[in-house]
Amino acid sequence: MSTNGKPKYKVIGTRPIRHDGVDKVTGRAKYGADIRLSGLLHGIVLRSPHAHARIVRIDTSRAEALAGVRAVVTAADIPPQGDRMVELGEGAVNMRHLSANVLAHDKVLYKGHAVAAVAADNVHIAEEACKLIDVEYEVLEPVLDVLKAMLPDAPVLNDDVRTDVMGGSPAASDRPTNVARQIIFTKGDVQAGFAAADVVLEREFRTGTVHQGYIEPHNATAMWNANGKVTVWMSTQGIFTARQQTAELMRIPVADVKVVPMEIGGGFGGKISVYLPPVAAALSKKTGRPVKVIMDRSAVFEATGPTPASYIKIKLGVTRDGMITAGDAYLAYEAGAFPGSPIGPGCMCVFSCYDFPNARVEGYDVCVNKPRSNAYRAPGSTNAAFAIETVVDEVCQQLGIDPADFRLKNGAKEGVRRVDGPVYSRIGMLETVEAIKASEHYQSKLAGPNQGRGIASGYWFNIGLKSAVTATVGYDGSVTLIEGSTDIGGSRTSIAMQLAETLGITAEQVTPSVVDTDSVGYTDVTGGSRVTFATGIAAIEAARDIQRQLVIRAAELWEVDPSTVTYVDGGVSGPDGKRMTFEELAHKLPETGGPVIGNGTSGKATQAGAFGTHCVDVEVDPETGKVQVLRYTVAQDVGTAIHPSYVEGQLQGGAVQGIGWALNEEYWYDDKGSMRNATYLDYRIPTCYDVPMIDTILVEVPDPQHPYGVRGVGEVPICPPPAAIANAIAAAAGVRMKQLPMSPPRIMSAIWERDAAK
Amino acid sequence: MRDFDYAVPSTLTDALALMAGASVARPLAGGTDLIDHVRTGRLAPDLLVDIKKLPELNRLEASPSGLRLGASVPCWKVIASTEISRDYTALVDSCRIIGGIQIQNRASVGGNLCNSGPAADSIPSLIALGAQCVIASKDGTREVPVEAFCTGPGKNVLQPGELLVELKFPARAVRSGSHYRRFIPRNEMDIAVVGVGASVTLDESGQRITDARIALGAVGPTPLLATDAAQALIGQAFDEVAIAKSVAAAKAIATPISDMRGTAEYRVHLVGVLLARVLKAAVARARGETFTYQPGH
């Protein structure tokens, strides 16, 4: 559905076959594990069996003596970092922490923390050699819970962490702490706001540690050449940030590192931070041979960056007629081993779907003995949405207000100031609620007993950042498009389509390639829902550059002044009805000076953010507490859908990941801090039997900051599902779930409590 | 992964000789558990004896005197057998939910039994259907009822050099029916939080139970034959009172652990829920009523 009289495009809005489709369907696409090089060695990482321990001694001599072992490295082989903060695309990173995460320095801070690595002739020898590395640990008490880690007597993970208080409070203690950061946002008069409310609800929530669950494990192959230049082949969301991290960690010039992107088997935010490239590089430096390292599934769970568990308390004040008067939120997110949870976005998103006249948000970034958390699809927002959207639903239930109407009354719109400061430009929150309210799904009756329906909304910022592309016109009328954006969700085609639209040619005439860091201009990560927006703008700019050059070529051919020639409708038009199509002119390029190469960059544009509202029907088995998701509809403001299939795919994929987070996904730790379910058998992502068809409603409210109105779509669809499902469960079973995941045993316990209270 | 030797004997005698020879020999049928155990280091065999092609281990013979099922017969053949589907339905219920289709194409019922997991999906069905294990070694053959086969998680009565050759099932009585179902948080591809198998025989009226066998999975170190739960039904009219008595007896022998798949309290509760559902399905089948079961629901 479209909410605006959008201009008719020729390419945008169609569904061409993806350029990389055949290679992926036939299995010919090359992933990191497919790398084969002459003299290739295989690396295995030795990981900590303890969640918290001091490393007393590492003796690698027995491992080094094993036949077939070529090198062993520890943190001593990675240059020291000192206290350095480095800007790495999506924010500043403490290099000492990043380095200690890649190979533990003096302490291990989570089970699975990398301690040493071996390069050997094959993986079996490397595995055996790892067992021969003698590590003496002084085991320390772990702290695994966010609130416990905040207590003054909690075991402290990092000696160098002090609470970073927003605004730089002079009262900040000089004592080491797990509380790395405090955030406070205020707007209006919160006390007065609650005083004006007729209903005030305060609820506490918990969410579990959740992994992105990409199918392809992390991998890296590094070759440290004799001239000091390093090449890394890897699966990454951002070749340039991977290059910079590797260079900074090894303390070599950025220009000495080349990162070659392999195809990526899912990232969702988890393949931005580097884990293996410095290890593989250090092993390669020692051996003079290329070294390939691939994580196994347990390492992926235990030692990469999940999204944090959290504690959230929400207080909401509403008048009898359903107007929000005030909100108060307290959020504590687990950073994992080192500071850096998405507490910032969590605090910014928690009230972002509504117009809060008065609000206060307080947030904490807290270290615990779990892997260093990392981005996962709208990082921090899903936790917050689960809490606020559940409280909103309970208020609606108490006041007898339709939850869609409540959102229409209070929903964020252009001109509303968020609690953290920014004022919204043109956004589509209300349109997504209207779309759900008008949907056949929302209007339909539930089919049976023990069924319930819930809705919830969600917000994500979407970012702009920097992209570059180069496009070369072939003499046959084709265009090769060179880009640096990892293609996760069909972006090769979505970007090619924007170039094609601008040039007035077909998507099939464009051949896109994702190339290495030596071969294209700086491009930020595929993340923040930015690629179709920002790399798209770069492609449009490159197309306009081509247009300008083609106008000059045509003017030369026609012997007219270039100012009398325009590029329009897939070709050039000149005086007296002169006309050549793009293809005709391409054929004449050899005789008018040769190749035409267009360049485009994007660096200044920012996005307005995206909203989604989801509606879900569930059935709760009253005897087992098991939830079946019966029907699911996503309405999202997608700006302009370039390739609608990929937009729908993002909405569906995000919803499915949200369903998994809602119902079953969670890191299950024993009291020693050992994850007991580090396989896909017991870390339960949904299978195709667990989700119904996810219906999508594409609401198109174009973002004026993009020539075609593109809005990032990838992240926001994961935000609403846990709350929408919790609200549906409440309707079906009369229990309000306040902890994720809402697994069958937890729902059964809630049902027993409900019955006991009767 | 550790190196090991691999042998493909063409006769049972050769296979038994190989099993008796090496210091640690493991038979390989589908390999869906074994290879993973070797890969993760849980098992470290010196020799894998491939028994997939031995004729004695590939029997699938349904006759008036009962069913003989070779230990290497893969799940898909069980699922495809009209005789097993009709008469030993619980076993088909089990085979349909062991892994996905690719696993079912390789994995054998015998292997599932020999892996001896407390939550193994085929074992409660085997117990409920009264199956006997035929075990051979180079010194001879012995028979053990399935309920006495497992001795602990991953452990069983097989001695070094012994091989499970086949499973023998008694003939099915008229007006009998069986069913297996498990509870899992997802709808497919999971390990049973609790599994329950039951077989019932009805009298001519179709109202009274004349015989019953009930087995429980994932509520103790081995799958359990729930004798008292079955006794509570035999001779009784099949009604809510009889079900409640059977459920109480079944819950009484459940000694589950609390783990990531569920608390002990929740698992005991599930024993009751599943047993009631399984009995109703088995009775429906015994009455010849159409009963379709959507796994996970």
Short description:
The complex is a heterodimer of chains A (758) and B (297). Chain A has 758 residues and is of the alpha+beta class.
Keywords:
heterodimer, A: about 750 residues, alpha+beta, Aldehyde Oxidoreductase, domain 4, Aldehyde Oxidoreductase, domain 3, 3 domains, 7-stranded mixed β-sheet, 6-stranded mixed β-sheet, about 30% helix, about 25% strand, B: about 300 residues, Uridine Diphospho-n-acetylenolpyruvylglucosamine Reductase, domain 2, Uridine Diphospho-n-acetylenolpyruvylglucosamine Reductase, domain 3, Enolase-like, domain 1, 5-stranded antiparallel β-sheet, 4-stranded antiparallel β-sheet, globular
Protein architecture, described:
Chain A is of the alpha+beta class. Chain A contains 20 helices and 29 strands. Chain B has 297 residues and is an alpha+beta fold. Chain B is globular. At the A-B interface, helix 20 of A face helix 11 of B.
CATH class of the largest domain in chain B: Alpha Beta
CATH topology of the largest domain in chain A: Aldehyde Oxidoreductase, domain 4
How much of the polypeptide of chain A forms β-strand, as a percent range? 15-25%
Structural class based on helices, strands and sheet pairing of chain A: alpha+beta
Rg calc of chain B: 19 Å
Order of helices and strands of chain B: EHEHEEEHHHHHHEEEEEEEEEHHH
Q: What would CATH call the architecture of the largest domain in chain B? A: 2-Layer Sandwich
User: Please, how many helices of chain A?
Assistant: 20
Low-confidence stretches of chain A: none
Task: Provide the domain count of chain A.
Answer: 3
Q: Based on the coordinates given, report the CATH architecture of the largest domain in chain A.
A: 2-Layer Sandwich
Strand order of the largest sheet of chain B: 4-5-10-6-7
Q: How would you sum up the global shape of chain B?
A: globular
Terminal CA distance of chain A reads: 46 Å
The largest sheet of chain B, given as strand count, sense and whether it forms a barrel, is: 5 strands, antiparallel
Average residue-wise pLDDT of chain A: 96
